[in-house]
Amino acid sequence: MATSSSTPRRRRARGEGLAEVKLDLHPLQNRWVLWFFKSDRGRAWQDNLHQVTMVDTVEDFWSHIQLASKLSPGCDYALFKDGIQPMWEDSRNQQGGRWLVSLAKQQRHCELDRLWLETLLCLIGDSFEEHSREVCGAVINIRPKGDKIAVWTSDAENQASVLRIGQVYKERLGLSMKTIIGYQAHTDTASKSNSLAKNKFVV
């Protein structure tokens, strides 16, 4: 008799515990999708892009983020708001652009992971205040000659928002006043090689 009567209580306790765990999660302001790209010239570009997971809580974020320095050359990570794909062709990106941080190969093992993590924290923490609505996501490119980190925004002509995002981003990365980062419109980058694209704004 004692055994059978105690079983329901144990089940209720377990259920209550699960509910408490769910309540303890910390929701993000936006839902984000983590993407992975691995270059394969034998396949279409879109076929090399894979959705890894979706995160909408702080706990989800920390359980899925990997070190960028562990990526092989030719690979990318991207974190974008749900509903926006990390490509120029997406309607939310077509009229936008990116703040670009270029890193020397030597920085891969001393600065890359810190800068990428700080970039992601800027995104999920809405660090750009009211201008965060202009942010689409961020991409990190690992390449043999050097790596790049970029924050993408939706409207390259919204000068006030673009500049404020750039100023906050540069400050959060801890870059010196002498370090210049540039903003490039996707329309310019798409029609030229990255090295020829002109900076629309700088901070």
UniProtKB/TrEMBL annotation:
Q: Which GO terms describe its molecular function?
A: RNA 7-methylguanosine cap binding; translation initiation factor activity
Checking Gene3D superfamilies in the record gives:
RNA Cap, Translation Initiation Factor Eif4e
Segments spanning the bilayer are none
- Keyword RNA-binding in annotation: yes
The UniProt entry's GO CC annotations, sorted and at most eight, read: eukaryotic translation initiation factor 4F complex
Question: InterPro entries from the entry?
Answer: TIF_eIF4e-like (IPR023398), TIF_eIF_4E (IPR001040), TIF_eIF_4E_CS (IPR019770)
Keyword annotations: Initiation factor, Protein biosynthesis, RNA-binding
| Top-level taxon in the UniProt lineage | Eukaryota
- Which PANTHER family has this protein been placed in? EUKARYOTIC TRANSLATION INITIATION FACTOR 4E RELATED, EUKARYOTIC TRANSLATION INITIATION FACTOR 4E TYPE 1B
- Annotated family: Belongs to the eukaryotic initiation factor 4E family.
Q: What is this protein called?
A: Eukaryotic translation initiation factor 4E
Q: Which gene encodes it?
A: Eif4e1b
